Amino acid sequence: MRGAANARREEAADKAAKGRTIEEKQYLVRFNADTRSHLHVLDPEICLTRCPDKICTIFCPAEVYKWEGARMHVGYEGCHECGSCRIGCPHENIKWEYPRGGYGVVFRLG
Ligand code: SF4
Ligand code: SF4
C-alpha cells in the first residue's frame, strides 16, 4: 500500500515537473557552495583574442560564464554539474572538476 502511495506521489511530481520551464526547474536545485571554484578558465587571453562568440556564455544552462568587458566571470556557485563545459569550449580552455565532497549540487527537487 505504501509503495503504491509513493508511486502516485512520484508520478504527480513527475507530471508537475514536466510542465515547468527550464528556468522554473533551475529554481528547484539546491546548492552548498564551496569557498573555492571547481571551474577554471585556463588562459583568459584565449577568451579575449581567439573566441569571439564566447560560446560558454550560451551553452551553460546555469549561466555560470559571463563576459564582463574584457574578462570572464565564473559564477561557479550556481554550476549544475552537467559537464557541458568540459566538451563545449572550442579551445579546451576550461578545466572542469566536480566540487569537493559535500559541496555543489546537494538536492534536486524537480
Ligand atoms: S568558450 Fe572557452 S575560450 Fe571561449 S570564452 Fe568560453 S572559456 Fe573562453
Ligand atoms: S558543468 Fe554545466 S552548469 Fe556547470 S559550468 Fe559547466 S556547463 Fe555550466
TrEMBL record:
- The name under which this protein is listed is Ferredoxin-like protein
Listed Gene3D superfamilies? 3.30.70.20
Q: Which residues form the 4Fe-4S ferredoxin-type domain?
A: 70-99
Which PANTHER family does UniProt cross-reference here? FERREDOXIN-LIKE (PTHR43082), FERREDOXIN-LIKE PROTEIN YDIT (PTHR43082:SF3)
The family database entries (InterPro entries) matched by this protein are listed as: 4Fe4S_Fe-S-bd, 4Fe4S_Fe_S_CS, ETF-QO/FixX_C, Fd_FixX
Sorted keywords for this record are: Electron transport, Iron, Iron-sulfur, Metal-binding, Nitrogen fixation, Transport
Molecular function terms from GO: iron ion binding; iron-sulfur cluster binding
Sequence similarity: To ferredoxins from P.putida and C.tartarivorum, ferredoxin I from A.vinelandii, ferredoxin II from D.desulfuricans.
PROSITE patterns in the record: 4FE4S_FER_1, 4FE4S_FER_2
- Its function? Could be a 3Fe-4S cluster-containing protein.
